[in-house]
Design goal:
Length: 201
């Protein structure tokens, strides 16, 4: 919710004439300032409760292939792309492949229903950081000794609203093994141990 000054003015103008007309018919003198004050107070309260960090899409990662892995990802629009923050628990210590997959369907027990890596530009699998790679390729999630991992990454050129790089409704998938950033078609990262569909927040 945005809180521009103009909406406050519009709301006050919309409410005041109604209340003034009713007050006049009932022969009660209603000060115009009261409904205006009520409207202003209401709008200020609404503005005060608006979160400062807005997430435009979310994915809840649920276990797959019998794992105990779960987590979440928040995605917001940035200039030139999107930013993704993921937080995951229940992993084995070390690196785990982490990708955007083509189909937002996590219904299969092994998450195979999410299909392959999201690849709208027809590239080979590769490293997110340099050279050709799938649009859905990201860095490995690296879990600590407690099985927790976090990743914060800018995905430039990606969208959650339009175009062929739109990831809304697709899936985030975590793998049992590290992505080697080379092997085709998916970095030899093993079975799928968590999956979540990217949805509007
Ligand atoms: Cu994957
Ligand atoms: Zn890939």
């Amino acid at each position: 919710m945005s809180c521009p000054l103009i909406s406050e003015t519009t709301e006050t103008e919309r409410i005041s004439p109604l209340l003034t007309k009713k007050g006049a018919r009932m022969n009660i003198q209603t000060p115009k300032a009261i409904p205006a004050l009520i409207a202003t107070t209401f709008l200020m309260a609404a503005c005060a409760s608006t979160p400062t960090t807005r997430h435009d899409a979310v994915a809840t990662l649920s276990p797959a292939s019998g794992s105990q892995v779960s987590g979440s990802a928040n995605i917001r629009v940035i200039p030139g792309g999107i930013h993704l923050d993921a937080s995951v628990a229940g992993l084995t210590q070390g690196a785990h492949g982490f990708h955007i997959h083509e189909v937002g369907d996590c219904s299969a027990a092994d998450a195979s229903s999410a299909k392959g890596h999201f690849n709208p530009l027809g590239k080979p699998h590769g490293s997110f950081e340099h050279g050709d790679h799938h649009a859905g390729d990201m860095q490995n999630l690296v879990a600590d000794a407690d099985g927790k991992a976090a990743l914060s990454v800018d995905l430039l050129g990606m969208s959650i609203s339009e175009g062929n790089t739109n990831i809304m409704g697709r899936a985030l998938v975590i793998h049992a093994d590290p992505d080697d950033y080379k092997s085709q078609p998916a970095g030899n990262s093993g079975k799928r141990i968590a999956c979540g569909v990217i949805k509007p927040s």
